[in-house]
Amino acid sequence: MLETKDFTKGSIPKQLIRLSLPIMGTSFVQMAYNLINMIWLGQVGSDAVAAVGVASFYIWLGVSIMLITRIGAEVGVSQSLGANDHVKARKFAGNAVTLVILLSIAYGLMTYLLAPQLISFFNIENHNVSSAATSYLRIIAAGSILYYANPTFSGIFNGAGISKLPFRLNATGLTLNLILDPILIFGIGPFPKLGTNGAGIATIISQGVVFLLFIIKFKNKNGLLEKKWIIGRPNWQYVRKIFGLGTPVAMHNILFASFAMVLARIIGKYGALPIAVQSIGAQIEALSWMTAGGFSTALSVFTGQNFGAGNWNRIFKGFWITIGISGTVGIAVTFCFVFFGRAIFSVFLSEPEAIALGILYLKILALSQVFMCIEISTGGAFNGIGRTYPPSIIGIIFTAARIPLALFLSQPFLLGMSGVWWSVSISSILKGIVLFSWFNFLIRRHPEKNATRFPRVRTSNFSSIITEKGMDEIKRLQ
What we know:
By secondary structure, this protein is mostly helical. The chain has one domain (12-445). 82% of the residues lie in helices and 0% in strands. It has helices spanning 12-44, 46-65, 67-82, 86-113, 115-120, 127-142, 144-148, 150-159, 164-186, 196-220, 236-268, 272-309, 312-339, 341-346, 352-366, 369-384, 389-400, 402-409, 418-444, 447-453, 460-477. α4 (86-113) packs antiparallel against α6 (127-142). It is globular and about 55 Å long. The two termini are 26 Å apart.
């Protein structure tokens, strides 16, 4: 049996850091697949990078859809364990696994059959780029279960506070990808030179190994599933709860990916090079939002358990500690983007024009890094108490605003092509400010906040109110 972690007592900073570091490691590993592909394909040329960048929008869309099951598993498992209900935690885990496999099959089939039409959305005039993008997307679609199920598997273990195991398994897959990428892209030894297709095949093989390792862990250490079968008959009561918890977050990310595709279409009129620069820049920027995402997930699990136990005082402290750490990360990333942009982009591309565009991209996005980290971390706090709608509402509104803002700022008489990137940075700043203010307002209205501010007042009545309110909220969400 797997031993779950209890975050309702003990040192808050130590628990958040210990939980978040493996989660961040797992996120970095998952992001590194694309980053490593970009590094190797950059040696082939900017067209190859652009092809994978275009196809990656639909892969990103698929990962966003699967957030339904990942978030549903993380929140459902963590809240159930916080309420000391291990049976319910196993039901959330089992139904999340069944659901993600079914969704992966459906999405993989759709993207395989419609790949040419999907790629044509970007109106890329370079036939080599569009053809390579179609082929790459179909390779990922053929291995859709292997690619899209692993984040949900990680979410189940994260929800139980077991964040080191997903990191180790995903790191194993990344190591294999590091070996396979140059072999299949450049045709080393007896292997043929496959270019972008080689990068896709290497990714699917590596993700397949991770998938099998997760299956072995579930079957041999069956503490988080009801049965030794990985996929079972859906329990619609739990499927509805998983959709209720995960859909707002997934919808936010689906629309986020969709709006990014529209922005890529806008910038695509300037040629394949800006698309390649934006694709690489997004992978570089992922270093900051993946870090914030690790703390966000840790805060979600921490908050979920303490919400289930009615410990609002620990929720308050955990939130502010996480915001402080995430803000510091954002400041450090801003410094690197402003002063080391040339060195960073030179790792990926050698063309002087591409490097110049990359430096401009990083300087524009540098202004929003602190606010983006705060937004992502605050979203984890909302998720932990089961209120997944506020981050989604704020995210959808301000991300949607990027489209008209980009169309306006990219006019030749204003900022031109860089106006698209300015629309991203401005909207991220606004999202961070508004979402942080919303959660700060929410926690300051909570009765136990008064008990914390005035320690001489008897707190027994407050504690009973909080516990009763917390349990009522759990029942309402269920």
